[in-house]
Amino acid sequence: MSQPIYAIYGASGCGRSLMPVARQQLYREGVNSEIYFIDDSLQEQQIVNGHIALNYQSFKDLDAPQKYVLIAIANSQIREKLANQIIRDGLQLWTVHADNIVMMDNIEIGEGAALSPFVSITSNIKIGKCFHANLYSYVEHDCVIGDYVTFAPGVKCNGNIHIQDHAYIGAGAVIKQGTANKPLVIGRGAIVGMGAVVTKDVPPNVTVVGNPARVLEKN
Ligand code: UDP
């Protein structure tokens, strides 16, 4: 094979939703290549939604000059583990975005991102590795987002917000804007529950829920 090949890692919900976005991207770029699913639960090759699905070892064994992989798994710890493996093995992390996303000025975005349909990223924004922004999410001006951050659908991330590595923001959450001098900070590994209205900083590794969002105490 003389052409690069492409894969979506994860053939569950997240992966099957991102496959059409990936197909759209190759079509937009005029690339006529196969896109595989990789899923380690598979002992044998299968067809999933019209695409060949195989495990990582079998994908690595395919003959191609370059291999691009989008990790389409919502769990950020798994994303980090697989991203490190992919880089160690000499494969490339693939960034995929829908045709209709909006991207404004001065955006820096790390490799391996997945930007679903209707996502908007405005101006002066820095985002780390393997960011997932699901359907209709937005990131407003002057935000800084770390590595392996996940937005479920419809997240409203307003201006001057800093979100640290591995934070997970649930569907429809609204995060109040910070200021240039005092950004609102969502700590590393924090989880923001769906529909939460976040009005102040969230410490690392806690879950917040409700309006206004409060820390959910563990029983
Ligand atoms: N998976 C994998 N290798 C791993 C971890 C997970 O292939 O090391 C696959 C797993 O078999 C499953 C998918 O990734 O098919 C994750 O699916 P899940 O429904 O847990 O989450 P989502 O699709 O919502 O991210």
TrEMBL record:
Record bears the keyword Kinase: no
Domain PglD N-terminal: 7-86
CDD domains for the chain: LbH_AT_putative
Molecular-function GO term, any one: acyltransferase activity
Active site residues per record: 141
Gene3D superfamilies reported for this sequence: 3.40.50.20, Hexapeptide repeat proteins
UniProt EC number: 2.3.1.203
Site (Increases basicity of active site His): 142
Family: Belongs to the transferase hexapeptide repeat family.
Name used for this protein in its record: UDP-N-acetylbacillosamine N-acetyltransferase
Source species: Acinetobacter venetianus
